[in-house]
Design a protein that fits this description.
Blueprint (H helix, E strand, L loop, with lengths): L3 H25 L6 H51 L7 E6 L6 H11 L3 E8 L8 H11 L9 H15 L3 H9 L3 E5 L7 E5 L9 H15 L3 E5 L9 H5 L4 E3 L5 H11 L5 E2 L11 H4 L3
Helix pairs in contact: 1-2, 2-9, 3-9, 4-5, 5-7
């Protein structure tokens, strides 16, 4: 955001420098300083600065009012969430896979699913410290864990397929634990439950060498091949958005899952609404149409 106060003070400094330069410049030419002319210049720019300060004050007041209105709207949306989402995911198991860097997004996702009557059975975090681009590291884990590599499948894809199978239906739980011990994943929850709904929680703080294409895409594809519904989401302030990469896949996306409307969109997407929802330019709509009828 542009800091107008900085520009006001910068302008004042420039004006002072110009006035001083004018005085010394005319003195050096031996003409003497035209004090009245300098005063006229300074007075003119002082009036300009005063006007700019007044405008700045008005804009700051308007901004405060807008922020207060937005905070009230967010609070209202948050209070309405349990009513709007009630029963949308009743008795449904949901597994969350975190591929991004925003840990504080996970409690928001949990709360939305709980408000909708669903149950988050597990949260699996793909370790940001494991380099899926390192063929030697991948090969070492495959050998150590005993991950089968299918024909036409890369080692990286084999690892992510194993994660997908374990998250969806509890298959290869022993190998999943071995992946944890190898630093590939972090595990939390019950991996003995069947999950037909999967949330991939992404959003990066830096480019991470194309992590969305390296990890998220093959993971989402493996999950979809297992016949489950996958919804990918990220926070509204993600420094590196993964939405465009996800949109190449056959999955729904939410680009502001940290906001009340984003959490509502996430629930409705899990419940069967297809599309790309949120507030960024990649979104088709803010929320699914069916959600609008419940507001």
């Amino acid at each position: 955001m542009i800091d107008l106060r900085y520009h006001v003070y910068s302008l004042a400094a420039v004006i002072a420098a110009l006035a001083i330069g004018f005085v010394f410049g005319t003195s050096s030419l031996g003409k003497g300083a035209d004090v009245k002319q300098v005063e006229r210049i300074v007075n003119h720019y002082e009036r300009s600065i005063s006007s700019l300060r007044s405008s700045l004050s008005e804009q700051q007041d308007s901004l405060k009012t807008a922020r207060a209105d937005l905070n009230r709207a967010n609070s209202l949306c948050a209070e309405m969430m349990p009513v709007i989402l009630k029963g949308r995911l009743a008795y449904r198991n949901v597994a969350v896979v975190q591929t991004g860097d925003y840990d504080d997004l996970i409690p928001e996702i949990r709360a939305a699913i709980k408000d909708a009557g669903g149950n988050v059975t597990s949260v699996t975090r793909i370790s940001p410290d494991f380099n899926f681009n390192d063929d030697n590291a991948v090969a070492s884990v495959i050998s150590k864990v005993g991950v089968p590599v299918h024909v036409g499948e890369s080692g990286r894809e084999a690892l992510l397929r194993l994660v997908a199978e374990a998250v969806v239906g509890g298959r290869n739980k022993d190998k999943l634990l071995a992946l944890r011990d190898s630093g590939v994943v972090e595990l939390s929850g019950d991996y003995g439950r069947w999950n037909r709904l999967i949330v991939i929680a992404g959003g990066l703080r830096n480019s991470s060498a194309g992590r969305a294409g390296i990890v998220d895409a093959p993971l989402a594809e493996s999950l979809s091949n297992l016949g489950v519904r996958v919804v990918c989401c990220e926070p509204s302030d993600a420094e590196v958005s993964e939405i465009q990469e996800w949109q190449r896949l056959d999955v729904s996306t939410v680009d502001s899952a940290d906001k009340p409307w984003g959490r509502a969109a996430l629930v409705f997407a899990l419940a069967g609404e297809d599309g790309h929802f949120g507030q960024k330019r990649t979104a088709e709509r803010l929320i699914p149409r069916i959600a609008e009828t419940r507001l």
